[in-house]
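Sample intake — Fructokinase
Collected from: Shewanella septentrionalis
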Amino acid sequence: MLRIGIDLGGTKIELVALDDDGKEVFRKRIPTPREYVATVDALVALVTEVEESLQQTATIGIGIPGVISPFTGLVKNANSTWINGHPLDVDLGARLNRKVKIANDANCFAVSEAVDGAAAGKSVVFGAIIGTGCGAGIAIKGQVHDGGNGIGGEWGHNPLPWMKADEFNTTTCFCGNRDCIETFISGTGFVRDFRAAGGVADSGIEIAQMMQAGDPLATQAFDRFIDRLARSLAHVINMMDPDVIVLGGGVSNIDAIYTELPKVLPLYVVGRECQTPVVKNCYGASSGVRGAAWLWGR
């Protein structure tokens, strides 16, 4: 079976085709048209191109930076705002004469890592993408768990747990709430905190490099970051106790996270015991598009 996975982002559309063994047999990336009908046309053209090239008909899965509402059947919460309010799966399925599966891109990330990535063989996988923003997805037995409201994994838009006095009412989030996890532990939040303490850096990676060089402000900022990340993930462990947590996004490339976080997690997990593995992703920026292909299962 040929599986097509598509990552529909705000600036680019990326397509991969996988064979039965998960081997990539086709890949292409194009700019995203910033208009709905043009976006559908571009998706149809991409699928047609790969199927004609490989002389096979494929299943189609798409990851989007939003969700399909289970109540209206329309896209919502997408930062690619021109697809909001449209039945993208229905419209695309009608053009391609087959069912199309669509899931949130963070859920696709979790599925990718659960099927044949860093969490392969694990039953319950929590995938957290920590980059400019902060999102998460849940995969159970290799399939998306999106929940009855279609928002399973919207971890980043809960309040930072066990907030300290100097953390209350200090951040605002695009979602309309204050003190969301995203505003503290995203790469953007990490840099904001460092700059507020008097540091100068443009990325979390840069702060980590300064920490390794012995910079005291960077070391203190990283310690705060790890503590906040531990609090945030401890909530996940206390509620669903996943078999493994996989980190993605730019911040996941900070190696010190994987040595320091396990030391702090037990301070916040119920019972003060925690052996939950927290691991780096296997497929990097390609994980989401591969997960979209695996929406049809293996």
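Post-analysis note: The chain has nine helices and twelve strands.
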